[in-house]
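Take a look at my tokenised protein here and describe the backbone shape.
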Amino acid sequence: MTPTEMESRIVRYGDLRPCKTAFIDAHTPGSDQKENFTVIGGGVSESADQHVHIGIPHGFNIGAAGQPPKCRNSLHSHRTAEVFFVLKGRWRFFWGRWGTAGEVVLEEGDIINIPTGIFRGFENIGTDYGMIMAVLGGDDAGGGVIWAPQVIEDAAGHGLVLGQNGKLYDTKKGQALPSGVGPMPVLNDAELAGYPEPTTADVVPHYVARYYDLYALADRTPAVVIGENGKLRDKPGFEVSFVTRGSAWDDLRAYPRPSVLMPMRGHWRVTWGEGSATLAPGDTMSVPENVAYSLAPSMTGEASLYHVVATKDPAGATWNLKGTAA
């Protein structure tokens, strides 16, 4: 693969194209300043305005959320895995029917593998614009977003209606549901009863990993963060590893499925048979399947990177809230 061909599979942080109308809460006060990014795969955006940087199927999706201070993403659920790591800022993640069952604050580099099938939300509690990177299981990311009823109801008061087809319509712009398409129904009480209310003690030990713990674990070899044998033991359809200067590799390594490199700290040199590229924090690189490459920091100082590769496991829930086989 030539350097030009490989560069087309690199999304630079400065080239990310945001969508400010990606979801049903885009006009709801408190959530109306968030930006959504779809880096790899179709993502779960409900807006026709969403730009997709790399549409090649990987077995998972890569996205990002950028938000100013005090801006939040409303309560929702997914049918497949949703993993976040904090690239910039300080973030509070909360969950439960009303967002009060539990919460955790994540700092830069921390990662959370939010359990499938619970309502979750997040907000930037830092002092500056923040960014979190996301990995969603499956090529179709589980078919979209399931919103808590109050989110749909609140959005209607601000002009946005979500159709049963998963698309948004802005009544303030004169848009209406197409003929034959009804509004997305809200979950009823019986359906809501199936959503668990795990406490902070249920979630944090099994689904949250701290940056400096991972940095220590990856001192000599890459640390598996999320995987069947990972620090956060799960089988969400992809494996996430953490690499530091001490665990980078000079030999050429290839994977049978596309692998994604996402630097957290420092600049990284990726070298393959026909060329090389340098990545900075916030960049995302997709290396094609069976392309062998080496990976090493290109400068002195702290260096860390998240590595994601699909597995043969189903993209749905395979582990329960205690971290054991479901």
Observations:
- The first strand starts at residue 10 and ends at 11.
- The chain has two domains: 14-207, 209-310.
- The helical segments are 3-7, 149-156, 189-192, 200-207, 211-217.
- Residues 3 and 151 are 45 Å apart (CA to CA).
